[in-house]
Structures are given as structure tokens and as C-alpha cells.
Design brief:
The protein is an alpha+beta fold. The protein has two domains: 2-250 and 258-285, no CATH class; 295-428, Glucose Permease (Domain IIA), CATH 2.70.70. It has helices at 2-21, 23-34, 43-46, 53-63, 104-120, 123-138, 165-168, 171-179, 210-218, 230-241, 268-274, 278-285, 423-428; strands at 187-188, 193-194, 312-314, 317-320, 327-330, 333-336, 342-344, 349-356, 362-368, 372-382, 389-390, 395-399, 409-416, 419-421. The strands form three sheets. Strands 3, 6, 7, 8, 9, 10, 11, 12, 13 and 14 form a ten-stranded antiparallel beta sheet that branches. Helix 6 packs across helix 9 (210-218), helix 6 (123-138) packs across helix 10 (230-241) and helix 9 (210-218) packs across helix 11. The longest helix has 20 residues, at 2-21.
Length: 439
């Protein structure tokens, strides 16, 4: 461990020195490199893939009373589209395994993270969590911009107490803050904990899937997005630590079970608290989720019905976006809905697409007669596939919290000739009231 500590300290020093010498070049390159970054709502499609995480989630489903299928999306399963940007290709040909040519800045940031992880005693597992988080948030870069005041490799926010802009854009400082514990710049000796808390402050993080552990610290609007970086993060950590697994220095009263068997169960509450839609994941992986289709009654051909009877929480029209804080058109109507609430086709039609749609998360669009389409956004699951004919009143999806939003809800859009129109007025003209109801 003394040798690793020395290597880590040297790596941090070299990384910091490189960043200082090349800060001007980095700033010029950041804009170009950022153009390719595109974050999407992960929902259950990205789920908790990689190194047994899927099986760990299924173990939680079994503990919740679900009968879990052998594989997701089987003949009986619901339709889940391939996640956008899932498992991106791992660069080759760089100075360190897992990096491409010219990625010296990224290597330096990764070295600083490994050095901080070594000092924090989080072992290979903790370093992998941190590298995966930084790959998602910044591509392992020292970004001087981000959503609102998010900055640095982990997109930490000065307004939330993570440090000054200069501090959180420093890889060593940011990594120590991410890991937390006694080595964190935010450690309070009197309380014995860091605030804001890092990975070490997350109880049981050692047994959590990488994406869940990362989300516990990051609290991202895309809680499952870290999963797709786990394989690359594992390779990077192995390359920078010599390949030998480094154990986590657990407290004396800790008992890590590890593995992916049912004995290593992360509770449903752990998943929900992290933002992962375990209920939707379980529904997508049960032996017979098609039973969802039996709910409700179909309506006469060509008639219209409300997809959901619930309270309206945000109407169609111009508004100040609650997340991005820009004045723009809200192209649909939001309804109060807990994750997993059944949603019904508004009328007969054909499923046009099921996909990931940026801030809208997992969506389903149904094409109806007369050039009309209805779009359901922020879903946790879709139980129909593109090309399916659906009847009005048929359950076609479950509400969720995928994509960008302030919490679980159902967003309904109606498009006429490709143009979004007010769903409430549209349905009212067809004898259906969307206002009112109980959430």
C-alpha cells in the first residue's frame, strides 16, 4: 500500500503539473470536445448493466415478490428500446489502456482520481465508481462550464457547497471531495464526516451497483447513465494501478458480501433513494408483464379517452423551464403520477416509435387517424412495440421519471400535422375532459 500511495502521489503531482502547463490549450479544445456530448434520460433501458449489476437488481426484484424472467425483454417481456449511447466504444491507442491518442488531459484527471482514491482507501471498487462518474459528467475533463454552475470533472456545484469554481475544476480537489471521508476537503473533524458527503458517507456503497453508488453522490437527472461507463472505468483503473485488485479498507464492523447472488441484495429503498427506477426494472423483467395489458376496457373504434385520470401539474404553453431556467414552449400537459402508473392509448392507432428522447426520457408515440399523434414522455416502461396496433383504452406504458424533470409525472403531447397543440383543448373538442381527477 505504501508503494501505491507513493505512485498515487506522484501521479497526482504529474497530472496537476500537466494541467497547469496546458491550461490554455485545454480551454481551446473543450468547446470542440464538448460538441459530441449528448446526455439522455437513461430510464430502465440503461438500467444497471455490467459486472453482475443486472443480476443484483433482479435479486432485489425477487426480494420484492416478483417472479423474475431469465432474461429481460423476452417473449413475455415489455419492449425496451436500445439505450442511446449505451456502452460507448472504448478508445484505443493511447498512452494508457482505455484512452485514445492525445487524451493526455483525460489521463491526468484519471491519475488524480486514482491517487485520491488510494489516499481515501476506497480500493479498486471505489476508484471504478469515481472514474465512471467522471466519464459521464465530463469525459474526464476539467470543464469550466456545465448545467447551471456545475464545473469540473464531476460537475460539482459551488452553490451547493462543493467548493469555489477554482477548487472544483481542480482534479485532485474534486476527486477528494467525491470520495469524502477524512481525506475530503469538506471533512468536519468534530462531526467525523464530510459535508457535502462523498462516497464514503454513503452507507453500504461497497455492495451497490456502480451506477447506484455514483448516483448517491452525484444526484444526477440521469441516475442510470453511469452504468454504461463501468467497463471502460474498470480497464482504466486496472491500467493505472497495475492490474492487481486493491481491497477497500472497510471499517471493522463492515461485512461486504460482494458478488451478484441473491445474498448481495440492495434493497428497493436503496435503489429508489438513488433515483433508479427499480419498480419499472422489476416490471420489465417479470415472467409475465403482459398481464399489464389486461387493465381497463377498450373504447369504441375511433372514440377518444383520457390516458390517465389525474391532476394537472403543468399546462401547455410558454413557461420558465424548471430545470434549464429558460423561457420556452411546454409542448404538452403534465399530470401527477407515481412511477409505474398505467397509461392508456387515447384512441385507436399504431405505435409509431418507442425510443429515448433527450430530456423526455423513454417515450412512446402513437399515430392516429387524420394526422394526429399522441406522445407519452418520462416513462418507466413501454409494454407495446413499434408497429403494434393499439385500441383506445389499452394500457401501453407505465409512467416514470426518466429524462429531465423535477420528479415523477406523466407528460402528454398531442401533435396535429406534426405541430404540438394543447392536449386539454384537443381532447375537450372530442368530448374528453383531462382536468381534475385524483393522482
Amino acid at each position: 500500500m505504501d508503494v501505491l500511495t507513493s505512485i498515487g502521489a506522484w501521479a497526482a503531482q504529474q497530472g496537476a503539473s500537466w494541467l497547469v502547463r496546458n491550461r490554455g490549450r485545454i480551454a481551446a479544445l473543450v468547446g470542440i470536445l464538448a460538441a459530441g456530448a449528448f446526455l439522455v434520460g437513461a430510464g430502465i433501458g440503461a438500467s444497471v448493466s455490467g459486472q453482475g449489476s443486472d443480476e443484483q437488481a433482479r435479486a432485489t426484484c425477487r426480494a420484492m415478490g416478483f417472479t423474475v424472467a431469465n432474461s429481460p425483454g423476452g417473449a413475455e417481456g415489455g419492449y425496451v428500446p436500445a439505450p442511446v449511447n449505451a456502452a460507448p466504444a472504448i478508445p484505443e491507442g493511447g498512452l494508457v489502456d482505455g484512452f485514445g491518442p492525445g487524451e493526455n488531459e483525460q489521463i491526468a484527471v484519471a491519475q488524480a482520481i486514482v491517487a485520491a482514491g488510494t489516499a481515501a482507501g476506497v480500493g479498486t471498487r471505489g476508484m471504478t465508481v469515481a472514474i465512471a462518474a467522471a466519464l459521464q459528467e465530463s469525459g474526464l475533463r476539467q470543464l469550466d462550464y456545465g448545467d447551471r454552475d456545475s464545473l469540473g470533472p464531476f460537475q460539482q456545484r459551488p452553490s451547493q457547497g462543493w467548493g469555489t469554481p477554482e477548487q472544483v475544476t481542480d482534479a485532485n480537489f474534486a476527486a477528494r471531495a467525491f470520495f469524502g471521508g477524512a481525506n475530503s476537503p469538506h471533512f468536519d473533524a468534530a462531526r467525523g464526516t464530510a459535508s457535502p458527503g462523498g462516497l464514503i458517507e454513503v452507507v453500504g456503497w461497497e455492495q451497490m451497483p456502480v451506477t447506484v453508488a455514483a448516483q448517491k453522490v452525484q444526484r444526477s437527472a440521469f441516475p442510470n447513465a453511469y452504468a454504461k461507463h463501468e467497463v471502460r472505468a474498470t480497464r482504466i483503473v486496472a491500467a493505472l494501478t497495475g492490474g492487481a485488485p486493491i481491497p477497500t479498507l472497510l471499517p471493522a464492523d463492515s461485512t461486504g458480501t460482494g458478488g451478484s447472488s441473491d445474498a448481495a441484495i440492495v434493497t428497493a429503498e436503496n435503489y429508489r433513494a438513488s433515483g433508479f427506477d427499480i419498480d419499472g426494472f422489476c416490471a420489465a423483467n417479470t415472467a409475465n408483464p403482459s398481464a399489464l395489458m389486461s387493465g381497463g376496457e377498450t373504447i369504441p373504434a375511433g372514440a377518444w379517452t383520457a390516458p390517465l385520470a389525474s391532476l394537472i401539474t403543468s399546462e401547455f404553453g410558454m413557461r420558465l423551464h424548471p430545470i434549464h431556467h429558460v423561457w420556452k414552449l411546454h409542448e404538452g400537459t403534465d399530470f401527477a403520477a407515481a412511477v409505474g402508473t398505467p397509461l392508456r392509448a387515447a384512441s385507436d392507432g399504431v405505435v409509431k416509435k418507442v425510443t429515448w428522447y433527450g430530456g423526455g426520457g423513454l417515450i412512446v408515440a402513437v399515430e392516429h387517424a387524420g394526422g394526429v399523434e399522441t406522445w407519452f414522455l418520462h416513462l418507466s416502461q413501454v409494454v407495446v412495440a413499434p408497429g403494434d396496433a393499439v385500441a383506445g383504452g389499452q394500457v401501453i406504458a407505465l409512467s416514470g421519471n426518466s429524462g429531465t424533470g423535477t420528479g415523477p409525472h406523466f407528460h402528454l403531447e398531442t401533435h396535429v400535422g406534426g405541430v404540438p397543440v394543447d392536449p386539454v383543448q384537443f381532447m375537450r373538442e372530442r368530448g374528453v375532459e383531462l382536468t381534475g381527477g385524483a393522482p
